[in-house]
Amino acid sequence: MNTSELQKLKQRYNIVGNSNDLNRALDVAIQVAPTDLSVLIVGESGVGKEIIPRVIHDNSPRRREKYFAINCGSIPEGTIDSELFGHEKGSFTGAIGDSEGYFGVANKGTIFLDEVGELPLATQARLLRVLETGEYIRVGGTKVMKTDVRIVAATNINMQKAISEGRFREDLYYRLNTIPIQMPPLRERGEDIILLFRLFAMQMAEKYRLPRITLTDEAKEIMLHYKWPGNVRQLKNITEQMSVLSKERIITPELLRHFIPQDTESTMLTTISHNGSHSYENEREILYKILYELRGNVSDLKRDMNSLRKQLEEARERQVITSQPVSAVIKSDTPRPVTTVQDAEAEEISDLETLNLGDIGRQMIEKALDRNNGNRKKAAQELGISDRTLYRRIKQFGLDKK
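The structure corresponding to this sequence follows.
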């Protein structure tokens, strides 16, 4: 599709933007329109996926037939089969008559299944049969019905993840995904953001007879670098808010910050060039730096933990003899400074107490053995030392001769 044809298509459907990804999506839609191949449109919420199936239907041999857009996520699970495939009279409470369902009514036409990833698994099985054979059975019925429907689907979820989690059938995914079309998020469309802002501002000014709002150059930069998690829908909402609530008609960065969320962790990106392309060099360098620093921190932590583990093992063995707390016998690389008179007195008392700690160590072992009825393994576990160390201490204190 050449440039003039592309511009005519955008004018017809009121599509604003010149990014390469948007143009590519429209070009694929025009190419696939004359066929009956299934199309799966993938993109974040609010990017305008609903435009593509309309373009496909209007440029297909089915353009004179019916077109239905169905939001699968808005129909309750208990009634969605009836809505899509119809039902027989009396098949459930409230079924006062026969219903053809969308697939019956849309015969020879096109059905757009928005949020197809929200379909229940049972409904997915029915949809797969329609795609493969064009056959379905109404709820409560036994007669096999036939339909000739072109199906275009859209989703904003990660389909591969949904498949791995068992929420979506893999065979249905491949049937729907015959022709994939990726709709770009607004943050990757560069100058399209400013063009869309101007369109929405103009529409608000004409509709409510207000002076049109404009952006300063600094405010434009903020708009271009904002993440836009709600995409085009969010941009339209913010533009409408500013058109109504802002007393000033020239929007500065200070005014803009009152309407755009300021959560820098979730809303700001690295610089995006004005031609719509996005370079990931800065993010890559930052990630490499973070990973390198993390690797160094982990290595240091492992080394410190190994050193501390050795000191703890030595301290437990020495505790049996001296009965000092483990923290007291772990050696430090540098001596702790004595900063007060109380500290000096405490250290002096500690030195005096070590004179008779050998007897206390013997008493600890004897009591541990008594509490465990002479079971050396349990006594060693209670004391926090190895069996071999306990045996050595028992022999040292002559307790094995008792």
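The chain has a mean pLDDT of 83.
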